[in-house]
Amino acid sequence: MIIVMNRGATEDQIGAVTSKIQSFGLDANISRGTERTVIGAIGDERKLDPEMFDSLSGVEYSMHIVKQYKIVSRESHRQDSIIDVGGIPVGGTQVQVIGGPCSVETQEQMDSAAQHVGAAGCKLMRGGAFKPRTSPYTFQGNGEEGLKMFRKAADKYKLRIVTELMDARMLDTFLRYDVDVIQIGTRSMQNFELLKEVGRINKPVILKRGMSATVSEWLMAAEYIAAGGNHNIIFCERGIRTFETAYRNVMDVTCIPVLKKETHLPVIVDPSHAGGKAWMVPALARAAIAAGADGLLVETHPNPCEAWCDADQALNPQEFQDLMGSLRGIAEVIGRNL
Ligand code: PEP
Ligand code: MN
Q1: CA-CA distance, 181 to 268, in Å (whole number)?
Q2: Which listed site, 24, 80, 141, 306, has its alpha carbon 20 to 30 Å from 6?
């Protein structure tokens, strides 16, 4: 971190800054220019924050010079990390498509969904048992009963399961049903206590981007999980809020290369919650894979018209299978398999 002093800052003011730096166990390096003095904090500057210095008299401004995220950063780990989801790799040359309905509705619906998702070539399946709904009066998910139905359907077709955790108090239940990947939804990306809880366990986590979160806030959210010891994190772009109203969210394709540069962890994309309409999903899905995403999270339902949640954006089994076919061609062109 560097602290730039005001023109004419006094020796006492400089001294106050250096003592503050030293009180955190770092060394202070004073560089006296012709116009200004700049003080460098040498050591683990993540303990420091500009707020600590900007309020001191004589300080013009202060700033970090290293990134605030450490474990998730590519600086700390050059190679791409591959996350092992019960023997299925996420990241690396393989592109993984996670298909399934928005929510777990009935055993028949889940059995049928698992059958078509598996037949299309997926190894992982999605489905929400706990749903974060805008209205408290709409279907909130089947809860634990939903986990049971999901597990049963997925086991029959040897699929790994991905499902959203909204409340840390349900974590033990998730572990009991052996949920393979815990999804943290867009509305929870900055629920720091929840992030810390999933940081303590050793299960892969899909961290969706907050709908108004910057890339840097998203990386810091991942760092919360990683700091607890769980490095099995998969980023998921799901569309951000902008001024545009013609579609549900804007799928931020740009964040894919940016994240791949900033972090060694896999990056997947959810084109369903981005577009919000089934007909948009194939184009967005292809764009995401072409841009280097490591996988997709796609909503598909045995009978979209009857879906209890997000019916408009679910692909039917045939559309889903066709999408998988077209994605294979794109994956191949960029040297990956699907
Ligand atoms: C979901 O994937 O089921 C979901 C609710 O998505 P998001 O958190 O991105 O809105
Ligand atoms: Mn949904």
Answers
A1: 13
A2: 24
With a cut of 90, say whether residue 335 has pLDDT above it.
Answer: yes
pTM: predicted TM-score of the whole model, two decimal places: 0.94
Q: What atom in ligand 1 is closest to the CA of residue 185?
A: 8
Strand partners, 184: 207
Mean pLDDT of 85-104: 98
Q: Please report the DSSP string for 20-58 in residue order.
A: HHHHTT-EEEEEE-SS-EEEEEES-GGG--HHHHHTSTT
- Render pLDDT for 129-144 as a digit per residue (tens, 0 to 9): 999 999 999 999 999 9
Cα-based angle 10, 61, 33 (whole degrees, multiple of 5): 50
Pocket of ligand 1 (CB under 6 A): 102, 128, 132, 164, 185-186, 208, 238, 270, 273
Instruction: State how far the Cα of 172 lies from the Cα of 162, in Å rounded to an integer.
Output: 16
Q: What is the pLDDT, as a whole number, of residue 310?
A: 97
Terminal Cα-to-Cα distance of the chain (whole angstroms)? 44
Q: Name the closest ligand to CA 165.
A: 1
Residue 67 has pLDDT above 90, yes or no: no
Q: Please tell me the distance from the alpha carbon of residue 324 to that of residue 332, in angstroms, as a whole number.
A: 12
Q: What order of strands is seen across the sheet that includes strand 37-42?
A: 27-32, 37-42, 2-5, 59-63
Alpha helices by DSSP H, listed for 192-300, are 192-199, 215-227, 255-262, 271-275, 281-290
CB 248 within 8 A of CB 289: no
> Whose Cα sits closest to atom 8 in ligand 1?
185
pLDDT value of residue 300: 98
Q: Is pLDDT at 45 greater than 90 in this prediction?
A: no
The strand pairing partners of 125, in sequence order, are 99, 161
E strand or H helix at 150, and its extent?
Answer: helix 143-156
Which two three-digit tokens encode residue 329? 């061609």
